[in-house]
Design goal:
CATH class of the largest domain: Alpha Beta
Strand order of the largest sheet: 1-2-6-3-7-18-8-17
Protein name: Amidohydrolase
Structural class: alpha+beta
Helix content: 25-40%
Order of helices and strands: HHHEEEEEHEHHEEEEEHHEEEHEEHEHEH
Distance between the termini: 9 Å
InterPro entries: Amidohydrolase, Bact_exopeptidase_dim_dom, Peptidase_M20, Peptidase_M20_dimer
Cofactor: Mn(2+)
Number of helices: 12
CATH superfamily of the largest domain: Zn peptidases
Mean pLDDT: 96
Radius of gyration: 24 Å
Oligomer: single chain
Number of domains: 2
Shape: elongated
Strand content: 25-35%
Low-confidence stretches: none
Keywords: Hydrolase, Manganese, Metal-binding
GO molecular function, one term: hydrolase activity
Number of strands: 18
CATH topology of the largest domain: Aminopeptidase
Length: 408
């Protein structure tokens, strides 16, 4: 039996699986949950995995299902499960109208604006198919459903709750993400595929005064403006050409009234890079520039730096990627393409890194060929159900069987 024969056998009942998948997808899309609050979603996943025959463990806000099927490799596939604080504007008949209270106490719309409902549905479909047809494969299949990817907290939460001791060590880890490519296409690349990212809350301290008496204060707004200007030179003058890097000042907050010089200003800064070395240089440059500008302005206190929403680099293992890509090309043919690295970020890699496991992460096309797809996190983000769900389910099965097929 060849790996492709195993794929054909495992995918044979897909038409039956597709029926409940489409219903589940609509349900998940209508009822998303914010990061670290995915209780209904996790319960739905656990119930379905149990019905498929998996050994199910809720852990760290997520769910893991383990299906042991004799001797052989262990393959882990991850899907993220959280929604976003976005009010949906897709006009779909099954659009989310759910709301939630965010961390600031505001009522916000909630939407699966990043396609995690696709990820849940396709991995559950693959999980059912792997459990239903066990003859052509041998080993252990792990379906891991991770919370709080959008806040970079979920993978670590599962690890902190004891994930590495709760499941067998995987020999390989896999993940996919629906993107704005044509539905049914599979994008792959080796090496860096998603950037590392850091968000920084920088507080600059001044000395408050009346707007008519600036000489009696230290204006943190003027200081902040100088900092913003200087930060723009990091990528242009401190990072080598050809080394991708982004430094963004997404917010500058200070003051309450036109004639009051405030005593502090806050900057929210975000960085994106593709290597640990560049990451270290960029972050060091930010701190150096901010401290120097504060000293030049005579700030009464040194600045503070609060790092949050920190995402690791996602770097696909070349050998794993080559194995999975060969299997994908055998099944999907010319629908497989080489995908450019993305400046978006993910925390998936923390899980295989904790096990010392190689991994690969691919893109799943989810939009019509004609027209411009709405970007991830947009209120208009709306993947087409088919062939997206079918292709995503097939991709998980094909990638897993590249290792688990008895003749792999």
């Amino acid at each position: 039996m060849t790996p492709m024969t195993a794929v054909t056998e495992v995918l044979a009942p897909l038409a039956q699986t597709r029926q409940w998948q489409e219903e589940l997808y609509v349900h998940l899309h209508q009822h998303p949950e914010l990061s670290s609050h995915e209780t209904r979603t996790a319960a739905e996943i656990a119930q379905r995995l149990t019905s498929f025959g998996y050994d199910v463990t809720p852990i760290g806000g997520g769910v893991v299902g383990v299906l042991a099927n004799g001797a052989g490799p262990t393959v882990l596939v991850r899907a993220d499960i959280d929604g976003l604080p976005v009010t949906e504007q897709t006009g779909l008949p099954y659009a989310s109208t759910d709301t939630a209270v965010d961390e600031q106490g505001n009522t916000v719309g909630v939407m699966h604006a990043c396609g995690h409902d696709v990820h849940i549905t396709t991995l559950l479909g693959a999980a059912e198919l792997m459990a239903a047809t066990r003859g052509p494969w041998s080993g252990t299949f792990i379906a891991l459903f991770q919370p709080a990817e959008e806040t970079a907290a979920g993978a670590q939460a599962m690890l902190d709750a004891g994930l590495t001791g709760a499941i067998p060590r995987p020999d390989v880890a896999l993940a996919q993400h629906v993107l704005g490519h044509e539905a049914g296409r599979i994008g792959m690349t080796d090496g860096p595929v998603l950037s590392a990212a850091d968000s920084i809350r920088i507080t600059l301290y001044g000395a408050g005064s009346h707007g008519s008496m600036p000489q009696l204060g230290v204006d943190p707004i003027v200081l902040a403006a100088a900092v913003v200007q200087r930060l723009q030179g990091i990528v242009a003058r401190e990072i080598a050409p050809g080394e991708p890097a982004v430094v963004t000042v997404g917010a500058l907050n200070a003051g309450t009234k036109s004639n009051i010089i405030p005593d502090r200003a806050t900057l929210l800064v975000n960085t994106r890079v593709y290597s640990d070395q560049v990451r270290s240089r960029v972050l060091a440059a930010i701190e150096r520039i901010v401290r120097a500008e504060c000293e030049a302005s005579g700030a009464p206190e040194p600045p503070t730096f609060e790092y949050y929403d920190q995402f690791p680099l996602t770097r696909n293992d070349p050998g794993t990627t080559a194995t999975v890509r060969a299997a994908m090309e055998a099944h999907f043919g010319d629908r497989v393409f080489t995908m450019d690295a993305l400046s978006a970020s993910e925390d998936f890699s923390r899980i295989p890194d904790a096990f010392g496991t190689p991994y690969t992460y691919w893109g799943l096309g989810g939009f019509p060929a004609a027209g411009q797809a709405a970007p991830n996190h947009s209120p208009f983000f709306a993947p087409v159900q088919q062939p997206t769900l079918t292709a995503g389910t097939e991709a998980v099965v094909v990638a897993a069987l590249a290792y688990l097929s008895k003749d792999a």
